[in-house]
Amino acid sequence: MLEVKNLNVSYGPIKAVKGISFQVNKGEIVTIIGSNGAGKTSTLRSISNITPKSGGKIKFFDEDITNLPSHKIVEKGICHVPEGRKIFGNLTVEENLYMGAYVKKDQNEKEFEENKRQVYNLFPRLEERKKNDGKNLSGGEQQMLAIGRGLMLNPKIMMLDEPSLGLAPMLVEKIFELIERINKELDTTFLLVEQNAKKALQTADRGYVIELGKITKEGNSEELLNDSKLVEAYLGV
Amino acid sequence: MFWIRQIINGITQGSIYALMAIGYSLIFGKLLLVTFAFGEMVVFGVFVSYYLYAIAGLNLFLAVIIALPISWGLGMLVDKICYEKFRDEPRFLMLITTIGFGIFLKSFTQLIFGTGYRSYPNFIEGKIIVGGIRITYIQIFIILTTLLLLYGLNLFFKKTKLGVGIIALSNDLDAAKLVGINVNKSIKFGHSLGVVLGVFGGMMMVSYYNAIGASMGPILGLKAFTVVVFGGITSLPGAIIGGFTLGILENLSVATFGSGYKDIVAFVILILILVLRPSGLLGKKIDLF
User: Which end of chain A has the lower number of beta carbons within 10 A, N or C?
Assistant: First the structure.
């Protein structure tokens, strides 16, 4: 459903992403793993068009979305939960979820409430804190809110940028479990960008390895998990 | 009795300041659009209503109602000229563009409407006396209209997608784009809303004091700035509290020291706040530049 071809991203003279191509099929969980600065975040940001591309093509369900403005891309059902969560700190949990449904203009009150119910069922902790400002939530709660806010869109695909970053190990487990659950229950496709390669590959169906802006390996998660070189480089064994 | 009357005068004046300050705070604090043309835009908008009333001979209320959409358009124009191209640039560029546009707009206003002061009529004439205290209808009109608008604005920023979205984008621009907010459109809307609030406040002010002049812009802009700094630039409730505080303090000082000292109050407050509590009463620290 999502096809990225020969994507290039530059910051001035520095090339962050050097012609990468990959695709995500409907219903899959695909992960892009790589170390800090490999170009993972730039890739996602340029798909959403909040960072300009210097070349390449993005197709979503065979429609060219390369040059659409960000809000139009969101309207297509592409949800991007950015690195560092970026929830709205001055808005309450409820208001954050309300913003998640921003582009759903023809949604009535009942559908909105149902969607919210769904998010609260997945993250009961958010319901307990619904009147709290986003900035007063803990890191784990903020990550839940960021994902919950994304789900309000009923996205066709969710792109998560380092959802495990800065979370306690127990919470990391929980977030990955939830990703699998959302994938199964809501049939949401995932593109997962992670430094935590092991966890990501254990959750994903397929993976790409990105190094210095280039894809150096791709394959099924088991293949990659059993790749001895990769294990040495990223899985910390 | 004398002091109660002064306080009522102060509340009236404060309502006007609060309204203008909310407009200013929306533009400066929420949308982070540095503006030094606010007062000039307000005066221009008020003059349009004066022109429609005094020269074109329209009914005063009709003149006001027509002048407000024109002010909205002025807001769009200023965004186009001063801000749109510079959204991703350092903010001091906006400082330059708005200072420049402010000078242009002030001269333009003088050119069309003249340099002298004109007399602007009261929206409503008359007064009532309650328990020996004289309250004019226009005071009641100003206070009630302001309260009504504050209520409406509160609903707008709490309950509508567009309004909550403006708070959201002031919080995090990237995240706002990623939930699908058309930030360019929302910023334009917010800016024009701020201008119209300022213009409407300005109309009530000149109607209350019966005088309007093209050179009033800078002092109005500075007063709005002071109120907003006092309340905390990023805080809309702060702008309201700041507005009423300044209005009441000004009137009490006029009653004590005479009307020549009126404008001193605002700027003494400005200096004290900047020295003692730069983030204002309810504000938080922001990096503007």
Answer: C
Whether B12 and chain A come into contact, CB under 8 Å, resolves to: no
The structure tokens listed for B93 are: 């560029």
Q: Which of A79, A82, A102 sits opposite B161 (nearest CB)?
A: A102
What is the predicted ipTM? 0.91
For residue B206, being part of any structural domain is answered with yes
Count: domains in chain B: 1
B7-18 pLDDT, tens digit per residue, is: 999 999 999 999
- Cβ distance B167 to A149 less than 8 Å, yes or no, reads no
Q: Is residue B229 part of a domain?
A: no
Q: What is the pLDDT of residues A90-140, one digit of tens each?
A: 999 999 999 999 999 888 889 999 999 999 999 999 999 999 999 999 988
Q: For the ranges A107-121, A223-237, B143-157, B171-185, which has the lowest average pLDDT? A: A223-237
Domain that holds residue B182: 15-213
Please answer yes or no on whether B172 and A95 come within 8 Å at the CB atom: no
Backbone phi and psi for residue B105, each to the nearest 5 degrees, phi listed first: -65, -40
CATH number of the domain residue A180 falls in: 3.40.50.300
State residue A237's pLDDT score. 45
Cβ distance of B167 and A90 shorter than 8 Å: yes
